[in-house]
Design goal:
The longest helix is centred in the N-terminal third of the chain and has 34 residues. The protein is globular, with a radius of gyration of 36 Å. A 5-stranded mixed beta sheet has the order 1-11-10-6-7, with no helix packed on it. By secondary structure, it is α+β, with helices and mostly antiparallel strands. Helices cover 23% and strands 32% of the residues. The chain has 2 domains: 36 residues; 147 residues, Sandwich (Immunoglobulin-like), CATH 2.60.40.
């Protein structure tokens, strides 16, 4: 009887050992799986993403009527003229647009393109960093029949203040530009963006007919 019991107990002990080994194996396997972290994504260079966004922000600025106000971004490139980034923001209000003669414009010469217009604007830095505006040589006029042509003249100092200057945050200037346009009506545009990918003017003004 004792021999019978011994023979029965031995397999029972072996079975217990097998079960324990199986549980231990499953537990270890589970721990191994749990400890395996999912493969992380490649780190994203946020600065590069922002630079890319800025460089691709090449849409045209606001098109305004007399009395309206719009905003546009200002920025800069690196020394190689690349990697454009937005640095500040300006607002522009079209105060008035008045067609004037050469005498009224204070000019001795008649307009080369056909008509002088006195465009009065209020520019204000509404961003968080300084911004520079340079309109001379960057103002163009066009209409449905005439392709864009340079409209800048050397005159433009409304209220004794010139619009072309550096603006600190919060600073503003109201002044006028004397532009040489082809005719009454049409659109004058400021093409002063430093963005090499810009596909339109910084802002435009529809002149009254």
């Amino acid at each position: 009887m004792r021999a019978y019991i011994r023979r029965v107990c031995v397999p029972a002990v072996l079975l217990s050992a097998v079960l324990l080994a199986g549980c231990s194996s499953e537990s270890d396997s589970g721990d191994s799986v749990a400890s395996q972290e999912p493969a992380g994504e490649a780190p994203v260079d946020e600065a590069a993403v922002e630079a890319s966004k800025s460089a691709s922000s090449s849409g045209a600025g606001p098109v305004l009527e007399v009395g309206e106000t719009g905003e546009f971004a200002t920025g800069e490139t690196d020394e190689d003229g690349e990697n454009y980034k937005v640095t500040s923001k300006m607002s522009v209000k079209v105060v008035s647009a008045e067609y004037v003669t050469a005498e009224q414009a204070g000019r001795s010469n008649e307009p080369e393109n056909g008509q002088y217009v006195k465009l009065t604007l209020t520019l204000k830095n509404v961003g968080a960093a300084p911004a520079e505006i340079m309109t001379y040589g960057r103002m163009e006029w066009e209409d449905t029949d005439t392709a864009a042509q340079n409209a800048s003249t050397r005159d433009g100092a409304g209220d004794g203040r010139i619009l072309d200057r550096a603006y600190k945050p919060g600073q503003s200037v109201t002044g006028h530009l004397i532009l040489d346009v082809g005719d009454e009506g049409g659109t004058v545009s400021y093409n002063g963006s430093e963005n090499p990918n810009a596909d339109g003017p910084v802002f435009s003004v529809n002149l009254p007919e």
